């Protein structure tokens, strides 16, 4: 792929990135690649003064590649914006100290990874995304495209919540729990993993339904085909709050009878792979498999 402009986005307030931004800016100039900074990111490094700046919303439409410096949350937010833009803009995720299953490039690997992209030798992971459509009284009021998961949770003072779940129009179960996660294969290593759900290889065509602290121990996580359509209807008692959140980035309360439909989206996101590590090496590194 030809890269003439690269968007650079850092986690908001990530002062540790300032020195790296300065060095990266100078290196990109030697490569003949124009850095375009997200507005808040530019403020972290005064040395980038005079460079082009754009909002996070506008960045995907103006660059050929986006480098994300931070954690998975920053990458997830950019993935959603890329999907919204309708463009195929790859992401190079650089990890800054957090667990980072998606931001898998280490700081000391950033230049090797970028050079591979510029030379056309980089390998990309193509990740499937989710589309969520929320309806009230039969009318759709919200649509999202996201990478990891759709999560239903109770309010801080609420009792357990009740959700009815259908897959491809067939009734599955009525979940009584603290919440429910609908995760993509990529999202299986996010909230789903913390809630006791299975790890699903990101190339698998699958969705995962995982209850959060279910009332009955027989209500277990289940893996379903990626082509399935999942519908969740909320049963909201008086005085209770039920929220739906998307990739942990945004969300809203839902009301009695609201339906959220989740399917695999047509959009895809491409992630630059770390050349030195396979997916299972990444799992061992992040999850400390085999260590005592």
CATH topology of the largest domain: Tumour Suppressor Smad4
Strand runs, count = 17
* CATH A-level architecture of the largest domain: Sandwich
Number of domains: 2
CATH class of the largest domain: Mainly Beta
Main beta-sheet annotation: 6 strands, antiparallel
What best-fitting shape do the alpha-carbon axes yield?
Answer: elongated
> Roughly how much helix do the residues carry, as a percent range?
10-25%
| Helical run tally | 6
CATH superfamily of the largest domain: Probable inorganic polyphosphate/atp-NAD kinase, domain 2
Radius of gyration: 20 Å
Order of helices and strands: EHEHEEHEHEEEEEEHEEEEEEH
Kindly name the structural category. alpha+beta
Strand content: 35-45%
Kindly report the average pLDDT value.
93
In what order do the strands lie side by side in the largest sheet?
Answer: 7-6-17-14-9-10
* Separation of the first and last Cα atoms: 43 Å
Low-confidence runs (pLDDT<50, min 5 residues)? none
